[in-house]
Amino acid sequence: MCNTAGRCRTPEVLLGLPATSHDDGYTVTRGAFTAAEVDELRTALEAATARAAGLASGAPSTLTDGGHVIQTVPGDPPTSVHWEPGVEPPVVRNLRPVAHLDPRLAARWDDPRLTGPAAGLLGVRAVAPLTSKSSLKRARVGSDYLWHTDHTFLARFLDDTAAARVVTAMVLLDDADADNGALTLVPGSHRGTGRADGEPPRPGDAAPVLLAAPAGTVVCFPSRMLHRSGANRSARDRRALLYLYQPAGRPPLDETRPLPR
Ligand SMILES: O=C(O)CCC(=O)C(=O)O
How many domains does the chain have? Predict the structure, then answer.
């Protein structure tokens, strides 16, 4: 089937199934979103980022171990604004949650091109939103993400099992490659447990895979999958939206209190 711009999608994508599937625990769907759809998401994300950054003046802030400043701006729910470390004038690194800040972003929660691969990886019929993030990786100043699994962050709020039953659907809003900080995953690493933030791949892990891919690609991977991405040394932004899904019937992260440590 083709749209009015003449762009065609495979029947698999229309059915919400990943066009490319890997036994390694993740899926990559190139061409999932059309150029016009990517443009709309970029515009919406830039509007949301400008709004959140505008609200940050005077908002409470915390300093991470790595020297990053994170502010919490009011909203329903509030959004964490994470700034690039040591960059003047200040540049936003990411927002969480982000989708509720613009209806064009929120509308994608139900998109079968995201829910299909997420449900497939989780092995369930229906999924529910957990939380959403942006990753802006601006040209020349976008900083790296150390080796980590999303499970570590989620386990602050969810029990171990629930934190493991989460999948991220990442929508690339710009072409991504090694120069502008494309995502690197370690295939199969989601089968292991207990990886500390910053811990590199272990002997016996599969070789890391750099996902160089065009804007409009959707990458889906589970919360226990080890991943990182490099700094953006290029003159091109490397923006992405990340929608985190869980099995249907569970509350969103922002309705969940942090667990006692
Ligand atoms: O944007 C990226 O390259 C990585 C983002 C990420 O790993 C995260 O938000 O946990």
Answer: 1
